[in-house]
Write a structure and sequence with these properties.
The complex is a heterodimer of chains A (452) and B (425).
Chain A (H helix, E strand, L loop, with lengths): L13 H57 L12 H15 L2 H10 L1 H15 L15 H14 L3 H11 L3 H24 L3 H9 L7 H15 L3 H11 L4 H13 L13 H4 L1 H23 L6 H20 L2 H9 L34 E3 L5 E3 H7 L5 E3 L6 E3 H10 L7 E4 L11 E3 L1 E2 L7
Antiparallel strand pairs in A: 1-2, 1-7, 3-4, 5-6
Helix pairs in contact in A: 1-2, 1-3, 1-4, 5-6, 5-7, 7-13, 8-9, 9-10, 9-13
Chain B lengths: L1 E5 L32 H5 L3 H38 L6 H48 L4 H23 L2 H10 L8 H15 L4 H9 L1 H6 L4 H15 L3 H12 L3 H13 L10 H7 L2 H17 L7 H13 L19 H7 L27 E3 L5 E3 H10 L3 E3 L6 E3 L4 E2 L4
Antiparallel strand pairs in B: 2-3, 2-6, 4-5
Helix pairs in contact in B: 2-3, 4-5, 6-7, 6-13, 9-10, 9-13
The chains are: A mainly alpha (452), B mainly alpha (425).
Keywords (chain A): Cytoplasm, Metal-binding, Zinc, Zinc-finger
Main location (chain A): cytoplasm
Subcellular location (chain A): Cytoplasm
């Protein structure tokens, strides 16, 4: 396996790969068909030789009998059969001399160049070093299995999960418990997806009413839209009558809008209501409501919105190229292995950032309780230590990100005039620095723990 | 620090400078600044997906070529031999010889027919895999397609893990429910199960057959598996006190490696002089049960190697990088625990324990009310008490409470006009 740095600069040539594969599929078919045909023809040659042999033998035997009848004198030796050498000679001619057998081999061998070319193309377009950064790590299999089992149940893959629980020897009581946790959730989603039945979700909402805000109305609304879009006008009216009154206080406008749709009941798709009733809009309603339900349901269950396993795998794959790049610099790799923090920052999708981090934009250091972020009067946040470095001997400080300049006298003036509105400016008495006189004036010092 | 309640004139009129100049250069990740990570880079990691079928195809090709060559040579030699003796050979001999050859040819044909089907299976798989990757690559801007690719990838990674760990039933079920059987190497792993089962039962037969099947590839990677299997079979004979058989076995199977592995052979041969309960460390290990586990592991490594699969499971590889990136100082602390954060889960935290925490030189503030990320569209606002939340959350709160916001942390209430915008750049 080569360390392929020649991988087309990150572009994969799918056209070439496809074309090549197409060629190989054809070649494999033609080659193997040919090989089989050749073998058939060899079998044919052999069989016909055998038939000839039998035929000759039969005729010779009957001739012999005739000869015997003709003359009793023939007690001499059997005449040497003439047909065996003929048959063998023919066989030799058609199989050995003609090189037919060699041809079978060499023709099949041609397939090799296609296979090896395909292999090389894959090597050229894809990287072979994905394990480069994964030396010496072994995860506890028990914990991994537990995580996987949870993932299967969470995702509603109950059949798979039950099989897995069995294969890893988890107690049935345990797996049943996990399953029970997610059964209702997935039953409700399945009714929505497969039967377009919102009733189970609505019932669930009624049970959890005090913890929900909008979901129940959203469901009732979709139920109404669904009935109307199916042409069940009477049912839609009945549904509106029996359910919407409950929401009259808060959702009057939505209800009015919905009821207005009756005017166009027969031609909703071309009406001003198309934005609700067009096929694509309907599809979006269903997928939105599914997401909304899943979100609320997971929230109330107290489980993560997205499978932690899926997040880890996907973040893992997307960060892998960087890790591989990193591992080519042995110094960095070593530093990575030694320290308890990565030495290089790796970009992650915003949605996979779960904890607040404040890194000072000036020093790039992560803020801590001892070095908290401070808010300048212009609104920019920087770390306290960076701030202290920026304060000149005169007490002047220019924001590193905007032209705002603040002098401690200015700060004082503002403080006097605006005491009630802003309480952002703290006076730091500590931190006497050489060259600085008295205090360092800073804006609000945010307690680091207030960020996270 | 003291809380002096000092006021400052209105800020926020200045523009937040773009972070571009400062950021970006510190990351090695593909140029930085990408909102979405580059899927092409991720797809480039999929070499095993495409290479495994090629390797299996190659193996089938080699074996067919080998048996073609062998049978054709036998055929030609036999006919040549008959031709030389054609004047003396009897009809009956010719007849039986032809029968034998016919039998051989028919067997060969049957074998090649099977191979043809198998090869077509691999090609079909390859096509499906290439299509899957190409689709994802072409439609990477489409979030639905991307989510789909990602979730299939999670299943693929899991199937790979399950197969490696021997949870075949789960793997097969997962592949069939996800309709991704063609994207998983089930056959490859199921056929290696025979070898593993054999070795678990202390039987080398299947393993040796496998070695023979993959001879040229194993030679290429300098595998010592076959030699070690032979040594093991020899030692087993010694264990059962079949010394004569052991010696003749060694003549037949160990001697070919004499030039390269003389030391090991001598050590193994020396067991003839010891007994299985020897206390001599040097020989005790040869009789050790662990040797079978080692053989299984060696088989697995060689099998992965010759099929261009990764040595570690894809789950291990992705978990290692994924957990390192997700792990922060705050993970799992009671105060900052985030239910959605994988590493805040105690099982994940356990796995992440030996891994480094991620380095963050860019701020990312997550609102403690809404859980939303604060950015230019949803900037952080600072309450007079120094607490910071996102604008969306505070706006919603102010709207519902006639312009008054209450800090959930301290319970203090403030007028919305007291809030100040902060720039985190």
């Amino acid at each position: 396996m080569s360390n392929n740095d020649n991988n087309n600069n990150g572009r994969i040539d799918f056209e070439q790969l496809e074309e090549n594969l197409g060629r190989m599929i054809k070649k494999q078919k033609s080659t193997l068909t040919k090989t089989l045909k050749d073998i058939d023809s060899i079998v044919g040659t052999l069989s016909s030789s055998k038939k000839q042999l039998e035929l000759f033998a039969a005729t010779t035997a009957s001739q012999l009998q005739d000869d015997e009848k003709a003359s009793d004198s023939s007690k001499t030796e059997q005449p040497k059969s003439t047909f065996v050498p003929i048959v063998v000679g023919k066989l030799y001619q058609s199989l050995s001399e003609s090189k037919q057998c060699q041809k079978v081999q060499s023709e099949h061998k041609e397939l090799h160049s296609n296979i090896s070319k395909t292999g090389k193309l894959v090597d050229k377009n894809f990287r072979s070093d994905i394990e480069k950064s994964t030396k010496g790590i072994e995860f506890d299999p028990k914990t991994v299995n537990k995580i996987i089992l949870y993932h299967f149940y969470r995702e509603g893959k109950f059949d798979v999960a039950d099989l897995f629980a069995d294969e890893i020897g988890v107690k049935q009581s345990e797996s049943e418990y996990l399953k029970a946790r997610f059964t209702d959730h997935h039953d409700i989603i399945k009714s929505m997806e497969i039967k377009k039945d919102l009733q189970p979700a609505i019932n669930w909402c009624k049970q959890n009413r005090q913890e929900l805000h909008n979901l129940e109305f959203k469901l009732q609304r979709l139920q109404f839209i669904h009935l109307l879009s199916c042409g069940k006008t009477t049912e839609a009216l009945g549904h509106a009558k029996s359910t919407f009154s409950e929401f009259a206080n808060t959702k009057m406008r939505d209800i009015q809008t919905l009821m207005g749709a009756f005017i166009y009941a027969n031609r909703l798709k071309d009406s001003p209501y198309a934005y609700i009733f067009a096929p694509q809009a309907l599809k979006d309603h269903w997928s939105d409501i599914k997401d909304a339900f899943a979100r609320e349901s997971y929230r109330i269950m107290g489980v993560p919105q997205e499978s932690p396993l899926a997040i880890t795998v996907n973040v893992g794959v997307s960060s892998l190229p960087t890790f591989i790049k990193l591992s080519t610099f042995s110094v960095l790799q070593k530093a990575n292995d030694d320290s308890n923090s990565l030495t290089v920052e790796i970009n992650v999708d915003q949605k996979y950032k779960f904890h607040s981090i404040f890194a000072c934009p000036v020093s790039r250091e992560q803020c801590t309780k001892d070095n908290p972020p401070v808010l300048l009067i212009c609104g920019h946040l920087i770390s306290l230590s960076s701030m202290n470095k920026l304060v000149k001997g005169s007490g002047k400080l220019k924001c590193p990100y905007c032209p705002t300049e603040q002098h401690f006298k200015e700060v004082l003036t503002t403080k006097k005039t605006n005491t009630t509105l802003y309480i952002f400016v703290n006076k730091l008495k500590a931190k006497k620095k050489g060259g600085h006189h008295g205090h360092v004036w800073v804006s609000t010092v945010l307690d680091y723990s207030t960020l996270i | 620090m003291e809380d002096d309640n000092e006021g400052v004139g209105t800020g926020g009129t200045t523009t937040a400078s773009s972070s571009g100049a400062v950021t970006g250069s510190t990351t090695t990740g593909g140029g930085g600044g990408h909102k979405h990570s580059n899927l092409s880079e991720e797809i480039q990691l999929e070499r095993p997906l495409l290479k495994a079928p090629v390797e299996q195809l190659n193996k089938l090709f080699r074996n067919t070529q080998k048996s073609l060559e062998k049978e054709m040579t036998v055929l030609v030699n036999t006919i040549n031999d008959m031709n030389k003796r054609k004047d003396t050979i009897t009809k009956d001999e010719v007849s039986t010889t032809i029968d034998k050859l016919l039998n051989k040819m028919n067997n060969l044909k049957r074998k090649i027919e099977e191979t043809k089907n198998e090869e077509e299976g691999h090609l079909k798989r390859m096509k499906a895999r290439l299509d899957h990757l190409k689709d994802a690559n072409t439609n990477q801007q489409n979030p639905h397609q991307r989510d789909h690719f990602n979730s299939v990838r999670v299943d693929r990674v899991l199937i790979d893990y399950l197969l490696r760990e021997g949870y075949y039933n789960t793997a097969i079920k997962l592949a069939s429910t996800g309709k991704i059987t063609e994207l998983s190497d089930i056959d490859l792993f199921v056929s290696s199960k025979k070898v593993i089962d054999g070795l678990t039962k202390h039987d080398c037969t299947e393993a040796l057959a496998w070695c023979n099947d993959n001879k040229s590839k194993l030679k290429k990677i300098n595998s010592t598996l076959e030699f070690n299997l032979r040594i093991q079979e020899f030692v087993e004979m010694v264990r059962q006190n079949k010394l004569g058989a052991a010696i003749s076995y060694s003549r037949q199977h160990l001697s070919p490696n004499a030039s390269t592995n003389m030391k090991e052979i001598q050590r193994a041969m020396a067991t003839l002089a010891f007994r299985k309960d020897t206390s001599c460390e040097r020989y005790k290990y040869l009789f050790d049960e662990m040797r079978w586990t080692d053989l299984i592991n060696q088989f697995k490594v060689d099998n992965y190697n010759i099929n261009s699969l990764t040595l570690k499971s894809l789950l291990t590889i992705t978990f290692k990088s994924g957990l390192s990136v997700l792990k922060t100082e705050s993970c799992g602390c009671t105060e900052s625990r985030n239910i959605n954060c994988p590493v805040c889960d105690k099982d994940f935290k356990k796995l992440a324990k030996p891994l480094p925490i991620s380095l963050q030189s860019h701020s990312s503030l997550i609102c403690r009310i809404s859980g939303e990320v604060m950015d230019e569209h949803n900037p952080p606002l600072v309450l007079p008490n120094g607490q910071l939340y996102c604008k969306n959350a505070l706006d919603a709160m102010a709207e519902a409470n006639e312009g008054v916001v209450t800090c959930p942390k301290t319970g203090k209430s403030f007028d919305y006009s007291q809030l100040r915008k902060a720039f985190i750049s």
